[in-house]
User: Fold Ergothioneine biosynthesis protein EgtB from Acidovorax soli.
Amino acid sequence: MTPENIRLTRYVSVRSRSERLCAPLSAEDHVPQPVSDVSPPKWHLAHTTWFFETFVLAKQQPDYRLFHPLYGYLFNSYYESEGAHLARPQRGSLSRPTVAEVMAYRAHVDESMRRMLKEPLEPAVAALVELGMQHEQQHQELLITDIKYILGHNPLHPAYDPLGIGPQDVTAEHDGTCPPLDDWLSVEGQTIRMGHQGPGFAFDNESPSHLALIQGVDIRVALVTNDEYLQFMRDGGYQRHSLWHAEGWDWVQTLKFRAPMYWQPDPNQPDGWGHYTLQGVMPLTSQAPVTHVSYYEAHAFCDWAGWRLPTEFEWEAAASRFDWGRRWEWTRSAYQPYPGFARSEGAVGEYNGKFMVNQQVLRGASWATSPGHARLTYRNFFHAPLRWQFTGIRPVRSRESA
Amino acid sequence: MTPENIRLTRYVSVRSRSERLCAPLSAEDHVPQPVSDVSPPKWHLAHTTWFFETFVLAKQQPDYRLFHPLYGYLFNSYYESEGAHLARPQRGSLSRPTVAEVMAYRAHVDESMRRMLKEPLEPAVAALVELGMQHEQQHQELLITDIKYILGHNPLHPAYDPLGIGPQDVTAEHDGTCPPLDDWLSVEGQTIRMGHQGPGFAFDNESPSHLALIQGVDIRVALVTNDEYLQFMRDGGYQRHSLWHAEGWDWVQTLKFRAPMYWQPDPNQPDGWGHYTLQGVMPLTSQAPVTHVSYYEAHAFCDWAGWRLPTEFEWEAAASRFDWGRRWEWTRSAYQPYPGFARSEGAVGEYNGKFMVNQQVLRGASWATSPGHARLTYRNFFHAPLRWQFTGIRPVRSRESA
Amino acid sequence: MTPENIRLTRYVSVRSRSERLCAPLSAEDHVPQPVSDVSPPKWHLAHTTWFFETFVLAKQQPDYRLFHPLYGYLFNSYYESEGAHLARPQRGSLSRPTVAEVMAYRAHVDESMRRMLKEPLEPAVAALVELGMQHEQQHQELLITDIKYILGHNPLHPAYDPLGIGPQDVTAEHDGTCPPLDDWLSVEGQTIRMGHQGPGFAFDNESPSHLALIQGVDIRVALVTNDEYLQFMRDGGYQRHSLWHAEGWDWVQTLKFRAPMYWQPDPNQPDGWGHYTLQGVMPLTSQAPVTHVSYYEAHAFCDWAGWRLPTEFEWEAAASRFDWGRRWEWTRSAYQPYPGFARSEGAVGEYNGKFMVNQQVLRGASWATSPGHARLTYRNFFHAPLRWQFTGIRPVRSRESA
Amino acid sequence: MTPENIRLTRYVSVRSRSERLCAPLSAEDHVPQPVSDVSPPKWHLAHTTWFFETFVLAKQQPDYRLFHPLYGYLFNSYYESEGAHLARPQRGSLSRPTVAEVMAYRAHVDESMRRMLKEPLEPAVAALVELGMQHEQQHQELLITDIKYILGHNPLHPAYDPLGIGPQDVTAEHDGTCPPLDDWLSVEGQTIRMGHQGPGFAFDNESPSHLALIQGVDIRVALVTNDEYLQFMRDGGYQRHSLWHAEGWDWVQTLKFRAPMYWQPDPNQPDGWGHYTLQGVMPLTSQAPVTHVSYYEAHAFCDWAGWRLPTEFEWEAAASRFDWGRRWEWTRSAYQPYPGFARSEGAVGEYNGKFMVNQQVLRGASWATSPGHARLTYRNFFHAPLRWQFTGIRPVRSRESA
Assistant:
């Protein structure tokens, strides 16, 4: 295949996957925004399209005709350079454009994109197209987590894919395969090169590659399981202030949390709990990695167990030696620029850099991450209290400091 | 026709009208709740059905089968006697039940209701059925105002019925027919019987009928027009604190209001304004009655003009002599029980009485009120800052007090 | 005495009483504003002085020198006509001016006022002086209630006047003298003149005098006692939604109230309760009138007892036949202008009229009302949830409506 | 001198300094809490005393008598292990205990402490006493910043020490001595030992000492000056979104900030600005280091200038080669535990560790830091938007990453 063919095929494949992910939804499911962090599925479908329209077509194709003059206002997420945009919490107030109109928008943009992708591209344009596809893959995971939130917080608890036969293998969410819990890998203290190198795609926040010094630690092969987390709960984990950050303790007290998101008491289960999954409400799989925990909970659990969370560099140094990719793994590293990081010029420079304060880095990927999107140097980031993503906990044991 | 036939026909007519009002909507339009006061159309369709299911079928028909065990939780509005219910601001978070499922719910309840209505009813049950129909008619007006809010606050400003050929005559909204502005009716000071008498239906808050003393006043035949309101705006009405209640002034300052709801600056219009209507964005009709004003605005306008709002009894004493029914007319009367008012026993006792504090009475009806639902003794009520209903202003001139 | 002497004596007497009320306080007690409704005692002392400076001296005395150019900004309460003022919730942020500086401000203004009052005054000026004194008397009651709030919400519960020997007879707060509880007065249905007549001082909201129609009712000679209120509490009064206004029920649920303000559980008391008074924490006096209840609580109590609150006109028609003046008595009347009410021109027109929405009228007076300040036609007003004033409950029994 | 004498002398010296810092205040100045972060001076005086009473006397002296049973509730800041405490935002609601009573509390505790300190102490107890003194020194700086906030946000702008002759040299606040602005120190890329070593006192968050890898950078000898910051402002620094973190931009837009805290427009100054200092409102000293900037502002300034903030390790590696101690210098390092950090057992373990999320490290000290309290390894920490501390900006120039 020519490079153009490869790119075009990839474009079509990425774009169609977003639509397939929404196929099991009713029109109504595309609309709500139950909390500010969760966007309507319809919005994701349109926003990813707006990205190509705005940063590729409108800038590269002189004769490109905007699909609708107001869609830029509606579907810009946060790019200040691209002008005013709808306030984020208002996304769920919009019944229009309808799903059908959003699909027409996608078709309109895809048609122009496909025409363009048949021709060779300037490297800078090719990079923007690639960025658009990576961006859409990020939103594909958000589609899954936001759909789970919308359906899972509905008192009717409808399943997204009850039989597990849909576009994404949702049975992987509660897969109970688990390495031995006492299997720890030794990571030696060392100065080691971190971050993205080489020719493949990476986001700007993974660069520049640089040396980092890590301490010697042991890192566990297995993620923390539901069963281990239940022991923490039964031992009063949510009632003991000493295990928590001060603001984590406030969070727990104010919101009266006593379990991960989506768990619900179920007297019919031996362990007393069920949880909502994309297949509907199910018993817990005891050996599956615990998920939907906040950074506060991940920290408190580790404190209780006598462990701690890894730094992002400890994680990166060890990850090739264990199996990762089932949960986004909270690290104790705050999200900061790498030494020498410089944001790009223009709107694309807003992609990552401006979020580098007050967030924690998560490493790895989750079962809901799009195929081909995971990477050892990938840096995901969320605020400490958030837990609607498929987060998890990987334990580290400190050694004496050098 | 037998009384049973009459009642059945009326039931079918009322119920089908709700569905026809939603016919121009997309499935998506049924979902959002952009502010707490505005409910999703889907919710109105289900809640009015729940009313019949809960207060009639479940209590009167021993073999009635609930359509869904959780719908009581989802679609109870505020009846504490009927158990827990979804918090009001969460209504827009629900994508399920879908519109189709809500329609199936309606069909299920309607089938049982129709069967029941073929037989003679105990008077108490007949009264509940009538209350259910009156209740649904109230929600039909809310359907229209809530649909207007959802579409009118969408930056795309889609029309509900662009051609004015739908189930409700939306051209009446901006009808500019207007009596002479200097036509005032004299109402003599008198002691006069107020409130509902006789055999027809009325809500409990219209009773008991009782004597009220009113002062002599002049009341205008015409409502305040858009043109008059524009003069108030041009004369600095929104900038002069002395015209406003203290909390009205705070409201104006905080929310930066400068015009009624749905007005938008339009440099292409001679008067500088357009407004969103159910037919889409249109120029103002200068002689149409101003609408979508809060009690604060109605009061400030009157203060500016040297007039005041009527009390609800002045209104009721005079209304047979002028044409009313185009706007809900703010009165200066706070919503209080009539002398001798006693709430009913049971859940139905929650219908009106518990709202009798901190609201203003509105009298009359609006162009969006359901056919046959208006009544001279009708007491509508809203909080002072609200303006998404089709409210209006009727001027009164005081005379010297006796 | 000449009219000038009488006025001067009254001025000195009113002014000095404010200072005497603060005599038992520490300097620190003059500073806090624990909630927005409660102002620092220092602020009351300065604001009442600002009233004379602004509305009398600065306007009438050409050579009057403002004490400080910024005090107008600091001590204007809400008179928009007099320019910008400190936001109300900021009053407790100010440590300066100190109490001593405020006292110097008072002395400065008093000196000019005394000089002026020695001469005959234009009637309009005399009216402003009188208004200033009435205004200061209103703030004297607020001084007492605000001091009670500041000290009573301090976990140390310091007494204002432990021995009851201070400038105000604080033992009257818990005086248990009580008329027979089954003594009811009959008020006949009638048209009767209400509101202020005659030459004495009254606030603008008491005028114009006008005819009102009242229904026949029975009104109780005794206020509701602590003992009666305890029966309501023991009978689940705070747990039964059907007794409450909808917004009252929200208020109770959200704030978890279970008793009047200042009550605290005390296992050492036979009735299980103590309460904070200006003499410190004491047992309840069972026959003393219950106090510190909101309108919501007053309404719920009456609903439970099978009674209701009086309208303000029922109260005014009957009050000459019972003993009143111990508690501000909630009425079911919303605060509205009397027929023919017109606000005064200028800043003084802001005194009352702009608050005539969303408040309830209270009639009578309380033990903390300044001597000579009570009046049968007096209309006090507060928002329904407030209860830091010395409020009380007078029962009415409805008869059949006419 | 014996070790006991040295310790006793130090104790008396530290304790008396707190009281001297409050000497210029009125009683009223000790009371307000204008925002939640700013505590009343009275509270600082009592809380530092409570620390000795609770962690030393009550635990070590069997016959120690608590001064007041409720002071633990009032003056515990956040030690969950020590039981319930007053909610932080309520500190300004308390007029009692008065300043005099707080001084009596101090005298009571000091008397017991002095008696105890005359005898040799167990090392663990000696460490707690030392911690108490260090803790009080931290609160001495907070006393200065909180006093500045209380007086500086009062519209009267009273000076704390107009002549600069008080207990602290307040003229140092606006000292304009400045090294050359183009003087940069080269820091080589290296692995270097960081954190506290040796026998002297340090807080737990400075340990363990460990190796860190730093990149080669240039660090400027001079802090950013008022003059440089004015250039940033004039160049639209507060209006250009691209310079800011996303949440910094929200902060600027929402709060409408356009200059550092305490700056106020002054048309009489050539540069257009004055600022409030502890000597009262003054012109800016152009070469003095800018202060009262948030982390967001420090970051935006550096981004504008083409520089960046140092990491805390770059700072520590270079600080011995420049003059520091005038401003707390924001670093780009998030506040995280050092490798191998373990919190202490018991209440003292709450001292630092539980705050290690969502804050930025500041290094150095300020002119208001207590004598003898500064240290090269000291780690101060605040949330990104806070700016009432004496913060400053030290520029770094990146080199190419290794």
Summary: Chains C and A do not touch (no CB pair under 8 Å). The longest helix of chain C spans residues 123-152.
